[in-house]
């Protein structure tokens, strides 16, 4: 019986070790043997604004820098208030709707909590 942990992605019991990494043959996921604790900390990832305040879903934020809208000549001006943000995974970690622009994704480093 194997003493290796199950795959953190698909919970497969058929994980094997390859060059210091653990590999799941069913989903192809690779992770390091001590990654279980890291995986738990990623789930509890804290997103902070430009001033270091912790953001949460439903917060209202203010844009602290003029932001060019990619693919358009429009600019989100400094001081624009964004209500009811939603936090998401990825490079742009805030999903929101801005009046006059519509749905948009922002980086938390360019906003401050109101």
Automatic annotation (TrEMBL):
The cross-references to InterPro entries, in alphabetical order and at most eight, read:
YjdM (IPR004624), YjdM_C (IPR013988), YjdM_N (IPR013987)
Species, as recorded: Paenibacillus agri
Q: Which family does it belong to?
A: Belongs to the YjdM family.
Domain spans labelled Protein YjdM N-terminal: 3-32
A Pfam family reported for this protein in Swiss-Prot or TrEMBL:
YjdM
All copies of the Protein YjdM C-terminal domain together span 47-114
Q: What is this protein's record name? A: Alkylphosphonate utilization protein
The record lists the lineage as: Bacteria, Bacillati, Bacillota, Bacilli, Bacillales
What Gene3D superfamilies does this protein map onto?
Answer: 2.20.25.10, SH3 Domains
Q: Which SUPFAM superfamilies match?
A: Prokaryotic SH3-related domain, Zinc beta-ribbon
